[in-house]
Amino acid sequence: METFITIVVWTLAFYGVFEIMKNIINIFTCTQLHTDGIYFIIATKNQENHIEGFLRNLMFKIIYGKEEIIKNIIIVDLNSTDKTKEIVEKLQQEYEQIQILSIKECKELIENIKET
Fold it and tell me: Which residue has better confidence, 105 or 43?
């Protein structure tokens, strides 16, 4: 029963992440975005067990794979209470494409893009 509940929770979590990403993509496509590459924005909270593997996998695909159009990866920390933010800050030192922002800083970034 515990495994089933875990699967349901993770499914709903992934669905939520995809919905957030879909909304962010809609924001960018509805504005005149003038950038060199694509901003990949990931909202995360309390994911210390998964964030490093996810980001390293994504960076591997960008560096060695077919995802060369992604130039910026923005991690939006939603006030994590675990070590998620510290892990992302460590990865930020290794990969120049990774940037960590608070939700407030991300909103400001998006608002500034709308104005340009």
Answer: 43
* CATH superfamily name and code, 24-115: Spore Coat Polysaccharide Biosynthesis Protein SpsA; Chain A (3.90.550.10)
41-93 pLDDT, tens digit each = 899 999 999 999 999 888 888 777 766 677 788 899 988 899 999 999 999 99
Rounded Cα distance between 108 and 111, Å, is 5
Domain extent listing, the chain:
24-115
Q: 3-state SS string over 37-101?
A: CEEEEEEECCCCCCHHHHHHHHHHHHHHCCCCCEEEEEEEECCCCCCHHHHHHHHHHHCCCEEEE
Gap between the Cα atoms of 116 and 103, Å rounded:
21
115 phi and psi, to 5 degrees? -80, -20
100 bridge partner residues: 75
